[in-house]
Amino acid sequence: MKYYDKLIFELSKEGRTGYSLPCNSYGRGLELPSGLCRAQAPALPQVSEIDVVRHYTNLSQMNFGVDTGFYPLGSCTMKYNPKINEEIAAIPGFNGLHPLQPENTVKGAKAVYEGLDKALAAITGMAHFTFLPCAGAHGELTGLMIMRQYHIARGDAARTKVIVPDSAHGTNPASAAVCGLEVVEVKSNANGLVDVEALKPLLGPDIAGIMMTNPNTLGLFEKEIGEIAALVHGCGGLLYYDGANMNPLLGVVRPGDMGFDIMHLNLHKTFSTPHGGGGPGSGPVGVAEHLVKFLPGTVVSGFNGNFGVILRAYAYILMLGKQNIKLAGKLATLSANYIKESLKDKYKLPIGSVCKHEFVYDGLIDDGASKAQDGHGATTLDVAKRLLDFGFHAPTIYFPLLFHQALMIEPTETESKETIDQFISVMRLIADEAAADPMTLRSAPHATPIRRPDETTAARQPILKYGDTL
Predict the structure, then answer these.
(1) Which of the four pLDDT bands, split at 50, 70 and 90, describes residue 299?
(2) pLDDT tens column, 95-133
(3) How distant, in Å, are the alpha carbons of 158, 179, 220, 292, 367 from that of 145?
(4) Distance CA 271, CA 282 (A)
(5) How confident is the model at residue 464 (pLDDT cuts 50, 70, 90)?
(6) With bands split at pLDDT 50, 70 and 90, how would you rate the model's confidence at 305?
(7) Mean local confidence (pLDDT), 386-414
(8) Same fold, 83-320 and 328-456
């Protein structure tokens, strides 16, 4: 058994400790009141300092991250984050701020907000941003509330429906529902884009707006966005831009110029902050000039979002500058198309047109959905598990729902050609294994500390405490 295979409780030995504190020499007056003390000591592991250090250091090395390997997770932009961002976020004058400080003591932080507001406005074509939302979905809800308040302020409260494409991120319809709006789905056409003819009958006096990301979840640029904007505006609605896929557009195209009225950005994706494990995040919302008065509260406030992420984003933008930020989107697009074309003879490519930052395969060419279902061949899940044996994190799988065996790949702009070539080689090897010996994939991973757990049981009946059993 390896050192990290044991739980910290299994390393515990009666009487062993990692600290030694002097006795209280100031009298009984400084002891905790009995009402605040436990009736009995907590059942904590008794371990030495070196046991604790080794245990958690080894656990940390079991985690996958962009600092240890390629992380082509589609729609999440899991790219390398420059370490200077971390240094700036750790500056004591920033790191030690408290939201209840008087405003005249946080002039530096206020200058960061104002500078980032101007930078994001220039990049996106919006007029102003609020930094209150602490995540992308939080930004969506904020933006939809702005949309709804805009209509109410005009005496048009009957606009209670929001159009959402069938290829949208799942948070789009969820945010609309939380906001009390009715979701109306618009279908995609054979090219994976919003079907404009299917959109037209949905428009009317009850439409508050449409939520879109461009490029969409398939990594395809919505070429009809000009006509879509004219149609939605023509019926009195607004356009909301989901900024999750902003990465390939940096310095090239602006949502405001496409006709969008409201948008959120995921600073933790597009503008470089580590965001694995559910956080941290930041979802600032920008609006066109005619909606600025509907931004929540003041643009700069005492409780203004996740300041550490905001700092990192501002550092990232200043570091790249106006000229170099254009390279991010172009390189992300180049990397994605390079992988797409290099593997289309091994993996099903349902839509072969030029993509932007990401694209979607529909499983292996040689397996087929029927083989996977009747117990033969290898599935997209098997490909994802096998990648772990070669030191690569899996891409997004089984999303978007438009394809049965979806495998969404986003290489980002930060990976070298050598890394991408290695990934392509491994993906080709896995495809060959699937054809020759599918069980190699179906039993993967083989080289990780934890093999393939029962994911359904793990989700529905998790063991969260030492001593618990199923």
Answers:
(1) low
(2) 988 888 888 999 999 999 999 999 999 999 999 999 999
(3) 15, 7, 28, 13, 46
(4) 10
(5) confident
(6) confident
(7) 94
(8) no
Whether the predicted model's global pTM rises above the 0.70 cut: yes
Q: Where are the domains positioned within the chain?
A: 3-29+43-60, 83-320, 328-456
- Residue keyed to tokens 């969409």: 216
User: What whole-number distance in Å separates Cα of residue 394 and Cα of residue 407?
Assistant: 9
Buried b (16+ CB within 10 A) or exposed e, 226-263: eebbebbeebbbbbbbbbbbbbbbbbebbbbebbbbbb
Q: Which CATH class is domain 328-456?
A: alpha beta
- Please state whether the peptide bond connecting residue 400 to the residue before it is cis, i.e. omega within 30 degrees of 0: yes
pLDDT at 376: 53
Bridge partners of residue 265, in order along the sequence: 243
| Residue 66 pLDDT | 87
- Which of 316, 321, 284, 315 is closest to 301 using CA atoms? 284
Residue 409: which H helix or E strand, with range? strand 406-409
Task: Give the C-alpha separation, 10 to 466, whole Å.
Answer: 10
Distance CA 431, CA 458 (A): 29
Identity at 215, one-letter amino acid code:
P
What is the band of 302 on the pLDDT scale with cuts at 50, 70, 90?
low
Instruction: Give Cα 187 to chain centroid, integer Å.
Output: 24
**177 and 207 Cβ atoms separated by less than 8 Å:** no
Fold of the domain spanning 83-320: Aspartate Aminotransferase; domain 2 (3.40.640)
- The answer to whether 80 and 279 are in contact (CB under 8 A) is no
